[in-house]
Write a structure and sequence with these properties.
Layout: E1 6-12, E2 19-20, E3 26-38, H1 45-59, H2 63-75, E4 81-84, H3 89-97, E5 106-114, H4 122-125, E6 128-130, H5 133-139, E7 149-151, H6 154-158, H7 160-163, E8 168-174, E9 180-187, E10 195-196, H8 201-211, E11 217-222, E12 229-235, H9 250-257, H10 279-289, E13 298-300, E14 303-306, E15 309-312, E16 320-322, H11 324-330, H12 333-343, H13 345-354, E17 373-374, H14 377-381, H15 396-403, E18 409-410, H16 413-424, E19 428-430, E20 447-449, H17 454-470, E21 487-493, E22 502-509, E23 516-522, H18 529-532, H19 534-548
Parallel strand pairs: 2-10
Antiparallel strand pairs: 1-8, 2-3, 3-4, 3-5, 6-7, 8-9, 11-12, 11-23, 13-16, 14-15, 17-18, 19-20, 21-22, 22-23
Amino acid sequence: MSDENRIRLISSQPIRGRILDKNGYVLADSRVKYSLIIKPQSINKNNWEKHKLRISDLLNIDTIAIQKKYFDGLKNQKLLVTILDDLNVDQLIKFKENEDNLSSFEIATKLIRNYPYKSVAAHVIGYTQPITESEFKFLSKKGYKLNDLIGRTGIEYVYEDFIRGEWGGEMVEVNSLGKFQRSLGIKPSIQGNDIELTIDMNLQLVAEKVLQDKKAGAIIVMDPRNGAIRALASKPTFDLNFFSKDFKPEKEYNKIFNSPEKPLFNRALNAYDPGSVWKIVTALAGLESGKFPRDTLLDTKACITYGSQCFREHNDLGFGVIGYEDALRVSSNTFFYQVGYGVGVDEIYEVSKKLGFNSLSGIEISEQENIGLVASSEWAKEGRGWGEPGKTPWVPEDIASMSIGQFVVQVTPIQIARAYAAIANGGYLVTPHLTKKDNENLSDKKRIKIDINPKNIQLVKSGLRKVVESGTGVSINYGVSNLPPVSGKTGTAEDGEGGLDHAWFVCFSPSEKSELLIVAFAQNTPGGGSVHALPMAKEILKVWNEINL
């Protein structure tokens, strides 16, 4: 070969694997993007003015903008300048029909990530971005190219190696002028693997819809038998296709990254005051301690004083002498204050750990997950995370708050889903999961038998059934005739950060041999769980029931 001959590699981009729901609906794929480009240094200046005016008329582009990009390209010695990004089909056809008279311009193609449902399940799917120069230094060893795409959040991030594919290319020989001489061989790119989620698009779409009129919130729909997530929605959300744009308008960028509403924030995995949905933990602590056995009856009152404060009953009257089932049914505060105060903080803390609180849930997208907080005497002794050890002791007011899920308890909707699944399935802690990778069967380690007396779990479960039959959750039955039996719990929680109250509703159905569990959470939406969260769950139950009829 002569000294002037050189070898060049023309890379061919791999097609990233698709992300599918459990029924085969495509949630993420790749599409070809067409851009109008010029190569400023190669343009024949005799034709430039004529071609520039023609393309301006044809595609309605400002000639001054075209000229500016051309001059900038010459000045900065750019090999390629984009005139118009992401042409639509009509623009592409118009160009192709007139291509012979537009030789100054070319069409460049590029594969970009495409999300057909835009913002649906955005926090689950996640997005991709080009790698940075600093990342390229170590990622180049794994076969990445500069400006290659990499998953940043969600499934795109967690399963990056599984879905990215491998670059290919053609090795060509060129002469000293850079002209093509011959092909020396082609190595085809390898397409990435498709990944199937446990998400059911029918349920995901209704979960997104019921959140639309809420300022912020989250919905989790899960199979309590094995932890398979059927829907996970967080509001506010964002359009995943924003991240596939080469040019990102400042207004859109600020709306996603600098908005006080924090649309990138996954509310389903963030911690909030749970309020009354926490009462199942206090109930189990009372039962497991032996201090408040199954036949316990307590006198509920208008308010009970702990420390310097009188902690009120939510009806300001009390409910007379009641047991566990009725205490759950009417969501009595003063019943659970007495149980919580009687067993103490550490008994509640120990039971909460068995139910999966104060730890990560095991869901794949754990980079978005908050561990939450369940107080203990040790935590108070060590300074509560902000004070000096020994200077922030446990006080009587804390236990009253803790008993009904306030202030010293912060938990995530996904943790609540795990805890209630353990009640629904008879005492097994499941691992929430989003993927059905390689059609693997869920192994036994995904399901852990918890160390809580099954009879105590059954008693709490009976109380949750009563909530829906004749208690605070009774309105779930209104206007529907064919739903299977539902068990659940309403919750209204004061916001420990000083905002408006949160609304919660958790339910599972059928009440025996449950197949579906829903956590509905409306952030800073005052008015009660039965008013704002329960109707969201009800709409999801109706759709699920129709699918399974």
